[in-house]
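[Meeting: bench + compute handoff]

Bench side (C.D.) handed over the final construct sequence. Compute side (W.E.) agreed to return the predicted structure before the next meeting so the bench team could plan truncations. Sequence as handed over:
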Amino acid sequence: MSAVPGSVAQEIEDFDWTQMLDDYDYARPQRGEVREGVVMKVEDSGILVSIGTKREGIIPQADVRAAGEGMATNLKVGDTLQVYVQDPENRQGELILSLTMVQVARDWEEAARLSAEGGIVQGQVIGYNKGGLLVQFNRIRGFVPASQVAQLHGRTAAEERQQALQRMVGQTIPLKVIEVDRDRNRLVLSERSATQEWRKAQKHRLLTELQPGDILTGRVNQLTNFGAFIDLGGADGLAHISELSWQRVNHPREVLSPGQEVKVMVVEIDAERERIGLSLRRLQPNPWDTIDQRYALGQLVSGPVTNVAPFGAFVQIEEAVEGLIHASELDADPQAQPRDLLQPGQIITAKVISLDKQRQRMGLSLRRINADENGKADGPVADGDGAMSEG
């Protein structure tokens, strides 16, 4: 081998070999990386870990404790583990690693995946401010703007909005990731979008799985003139006003209130129109099924007048059972008008003259009571308590 010229030897002597090793260290760690490492030494100050570089990294003891009691006591030399590069080189020239930040990094990756795929997760509300809700997404804190809170809308007053947000603290709500910016530590989520998608999926499931006759528990969501919308846990079904009770109902608010929990029977499924028909009354005993056990022809019954029409008057005999006094059965005078003889709320006594269990009809008469008493009165007269007696 030929000798190295003196000038070249001097260049070699002057060369910074440490710098070369750094420059050509293809495995040189970068802040934010997650690497696999091997435990080289366990000390009171921390754990030395090799991640394939010329220097061993250290996991500070505080970080080990934060990772959990089991982690601090179970790690031993030779164990492999995932570590997060927290600082490639601190002021003391040390490579600082972290166990806890590994999960944080994975959480950011999960948030990015959910944002791309549109997935829905559950998150706990841990606080609020004037702008919205603070939520916990695994080990990351996220933000739900007030505009993305399902129960709020643009017309909600500021004070009412703050009270609503405060009431949500501690609740677990469905969330959809709408923005991820790890560099700015920014995670924005939406309850409104998540709720809409969740309800859409739930409605599809219910329309597919439910059958007429199924009995469910729901919550009254909205009352209208024609019935009640009941939340079945993701989809609303409609209980028509005629299906609320066996007795006459003029408006759903007479028997239900918003937020009330009720049991309902599914009576109709229209998957094409996405409608679910419900009934409350079919879960209640029908008094007409046993009507002939309690009443007979010729029996005298009493009750309040519920409605007066040109053709006659309706009388409530018991809950959900009404009888009709036809105009011809009110008075001996064929010219007498029902509204001239009776008023709603008036308590009267009448005779049962017909009973049709199948058609759920009961015919009553005032005229025949008077006729049976040998014409002692020409028509019904209300006594001091509003009850009808002889004239």
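W.E. noted at the follow-up: The two ends are 146 Å apart (CA to CA). C.D. will use this when planning the next construct.
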